[in-house]
Amino acid sequence: xxxxxxxxxxxxxxxxxxxxxxxxxxxxxxxxxxxxxxxxxxxxxxxxxxxxxxxxxxxxxxxxxxxxxxxxxxxxxxxxxxxxxxxxxxxxxxxxxxxxxxxxxxxxxxxxxxxxxxxxxxxxxxxxxxxxxxxxxxxxxxxxxxxxxxxxxxxxxxxxxxxxxxxxxxxxxxxxxxxxxxxxxxxxxxxxxxxxxxxxxxxxxxxxxxxxxxxxxxxxxxxxxxxxxxxxxxxxxxxxxxxxxxxxxxxxxxxxxxxxxxxxxxxxxxxxxxxxxxxxxxxxxxxxxxxxxxxxxxxxxxxxxxxxxxxxxxxxxxxxxxxxxxxxxxxxxxxxxx
Length: 338
Known about the structure:
alpha/beta; Rossmann fold; 2 domains; three-stranded mixed sheet
């Protein structure tokens, strides 16, 4: 299968991409996570035939009822083979842990998801899937950048086992494309936030901060708050996933970000405005070894190749996320009472 194989490139924007995958059979591995839930629902809205594969069933009220649900472990080859069978597109969203905790046991991090991905690729080869789209990390892959914003061609020198694991998977995808023609697309995603980000698993600064504000806890700030990151709403990430399905250009790695850097202190200020607070209490802690000083992605390539661009402004995204989190916490409290 060549890079030019498949349908012609769609240049009509995100709505056009959505129409182009109507009826496609899509498997979302890691479908019950933050990225996965949003992607499953977005694919269902676009008319795709969607299967959510996860370790446990997501709540029925969260996942679109049109989405089929399959439970299993990523390391279970038979479960993966059954899930991949007769699929057109596979979205690989399964991660190992998180950057800071991955360094506590690098061997566990590097022997789990990357190895299971090699088994997945063998299964995809046998099943003759059309394309595999992988959610990589725009934050962990590059390590300490030499220049900002970071282009896709920048050196990849991760400073966490999590980032090394992502890079191992990227190289495995390239290998299987070279050897067996399995088409793929890598999306190096910045720092996404939005609905379904629970904020309780130390994954996602914005989600964690909103959860802490709503539960009357101080915001944890590692270092001085000067660390700069690239924040992106989940709806924009989902649009990028859909666009990647029909992209048939030569660039197998694309950054997905806002292209704008914001410090942790700037995010705190934006949250203070969104909550109508003069000041949010913070608990300052020592800097972490896995945190790079700044990470802002250059999005020139994805904007030109996929006709994609971020559409959700930070103020709007924060307001929507706060509203969702309020509802989620109220519903959770109601379930505990009953």
